[in-house]
Automatic annotation (TrEMBL):
Belongs to the UDP-glucose/GDP-mannose dehydrogenase family. It is an enzyme of class 1 (oxidoreductase). InterPro entries: 6-PGluconate_DH-like_C_sf, NAD(P)-bd_dom_sf, UDP-Glc/GDP-Man, UDP-Glc/GDP-Man_DH_C, UDP-Glc/GDP-Man_DH_C_sf, UDP-Glc/GDP-Man_DH_dimer, UDP-Glc/GDP-Man_DH_N, UDP_ManNAc/GlcNAc_DH. Residues 320-414 form the UDP-glucose/GDP-mannose dehydrogenase C-terminal domain. Its EC number is 1.1.1.-. The lineage of its organism: Bacteria, Bacillati, Actinomycetota, Actinomycetes, Frankiales. GO terms for molecular function: NAD binding; oxidoreductase activity, acting on the CH-CH group of donors, NAD or NADP as acceptor; oxidoreductase activity, acting on the CH-OH group of donors, NAD or NADP as acceptor. PANTHER family: UDP-N-ACETYL-D-MANNOSAMINE DEHYDROGENASE. This is UDP-glucose/GDP-mannose dehydrogenase. Keywords: NAD, Oxidoreductase. GO terms for biological process: polysaccharide biosynthetic process. Pfam families: UDPG_MGDP_dh, UDPG_MGDP_dh_C, UDPG_MGDP_dh_N. It comes from the Bacteria. SMART domains: UDPG_MGDP_dh_C.
Length: 445
């Protein structure tokens, strides 16, 4: 590598951390970002990705080795290009238009000996069937022969304080041995451990396997939680107990549904590919989608039951949602189940208020008033729904001031753990409702 010039196409949740790490490791990085607002924010040192604080971005800019831009021409002469553009679903089918655009823009800049790596999540076959021909056509060069081409899935977990880009092993692949060697060498310059696999298809499938595994297991405990509630069994206690098994069990916990850019989407890339190429259905994925997609409806049903038990209609009740993001300690509200919960409650006539210190107020769901989860707000709510267990929320304040809570994350503390009997028709006493002396009532999902 002559000049160590890296271009990262797409400066989002995945691309920006890669760019920052590469700058820290001595690369000259061009971050190509087509959203002019994002590009301007980066140039001004204002990060929109929580895992990259402003000072880290400012340091990268100051180094003179990071250039955010909307102009592909700035990437000319690159040694390595990493593509991290969105790969959403459009009406159940993969939308690879961002990838096609990026490939067409990048192709004329590919030179002999350069390396191009796709990181976006996609179905097995994309790198060789879609990306390779586009790059070949636009560059006049042969992928895997004149230049290197590979796929390496991103495993970034926003908000995770233990596992980050550097210490999480990274699966790498190439369209042939020389490409694999080039892709591996690049990531070895950034992270602690690379895991080479034999083909780009394997690497593409690995990412989808990981997320499908998670999606299916979350659906399993979600469905179990619904049944357990009706049976009067505390599913959380059962999960805690099962988690003491030191082998053959992995802990997953129920929640209000799945969100973000991965779980609601990636498994469907796989089921789409299976259906499209093999004419068969991937039943596990379809079942998991069905269960997880309906969790917000279940949350709203539980809210309705809890209010009803206190002779309150949903219409006109003041409901405070704690958390709008798709998971804890992130401001990412894409596909977040909270959006659907809020919409369903508003449809029923509830006065919906929500607190989330991380989510950009511009992304607030319609018909929701953004508030802070302070004492007065908690006390004024007929019911509080804990949707996201952000560290920024204060358990004691919630426990002290709220009157009625649906805790979808089993987040509130133990001293409230006084049980009451289950629904009238089920004479089992181990229901997950907890009361304290001051009259706070908490139900878990
Ligand atoms: N966010 C995650 O936690 C995560 C984790 C693993 C994998 N992924 C995958 O990584 C990919 C990117 O996800 P993300 O979360 O970073 O998305 P993102 O939307 O945060 O970032 C993508 C960026 O690419 C830009 N872009 C779109 N088209 C472009 C083009 N032609 N040229 C240059 N820039 C372009 C967009 O404006 C956007 O800023 C997706 O395939 C996603 O599934 C995401």
């Amino acid at each position: 590598m002559s000049s160590n010039k890296l271009v990262v196409v797409g400066q989002g949740y995945v691309g920006l951390p890669v760019a920052m790490r590469a700058v820290a490791m001595g690369w000259h990085v061009v971050g190509v970002e087509v959203d002019p607002d994002r590009a301007a924010r980066l140039a001004a040192g204002r990060s929109y990705v929580e895992d990259i604080p402003d000072p880290e971005l400012a340091a990268a800019l100051r180094s003179g080795r990071y250039e955010p831009t909307g102009d592909y021409a700035r990437a000319a002469g690159f040694d390595v290009a990493v593509i991290t553009v969105p790969t959403p679903l459009r009406e159940g089918a993969p939308d690879l238009s961002y990838l096609v655009d990026a490939a067409r823009s990048l192709a004329p800049l590919v030179t002999a000996g350069a390396t191009v790596i796709l990181e976006s999540t996609t179905y097995p076959g994309t790198t060789e069937e879609l990306l390779a021909p586009l790059l070949a056509e636009g560059s006049g060069l042969r992928p895997g022969a004149d230049f290197h081409l590979g796929y390496s899935p991103e495993r970034i977990d926003p908000g995770n304080r233990t596992w980050n880009l550097v210490n999480t092993p990274k699966v790498v692949s190439g369209t042939g041995p020389a490409s694999l060697a080039a892709v591996t060498a690049f990531y070895d310059s950034l992270i602690e451990r690379t895991v080479p696999v034999a083909s780009t298809r394997t690497a593409e499938l690995t990412k989808l396997l990981e997320n499908t595994f998670r999606h299916v297991n979350i659906a399993l405990v979600n469905e179990l939680a619904m049944f357990a509630h009706e049976l009067g069994v505390d599913v959380w206690e059962a999960i805690d107990a099962a988690s003491t098994k030191p082998f053959g069990y992995l802990r997953f916990t129920p929640g209000p549904g799945v969100g973000g850019h991965c779980l609601p989407i990636d498994p469907s890339y796989l089921s789409w590919r299976v259906r499209h190429s093999l004419g068969r259905s991937f039943r596990f994925v379809e079942l998991a989608n069905d269960v997880n997609d309906h969790m917000p409806d279940h949350v709203v049903r539980r809210v309705t039951e809890m209010l009803n038990a206190r002779h309150l209609p949903v219409a006109g009740s003041r409901i405070l949602l704690l958390g709008l993001a798709y998971k804890r300690n992130t401001g990412d509200a894409r596909e977040a189940p909270a959006t659907r919960v809020a919409g369903l409650l508003a449809d029923l006539g509830a006065e919906v208020r929500a607190a989330d210190p991380h989510v950009d107020p511009a992304r607030l769901p319609a018909r929701v008033t953004l508030v802070e989860a302070g004492a007065a707000e908690l006390a004024a709510a007929d019911l509080v729904v804990v949707l996201v267990d952000h560290d920024a929320f204060d358990r004691d304040t919630v426990a002290r001031h709220a009157r009625l809570v649906l805790d979808t994350r089993r987040w509130l503390p133990g001293p409230l753990d006084v049980r009451r009997s289950g629904p009238a028709a089920v004479p089992i006493p181990a229901q997950a409702t907890r009361h304290d002396d001051a009259g706070l009532a908490v139900e878990s999902l």
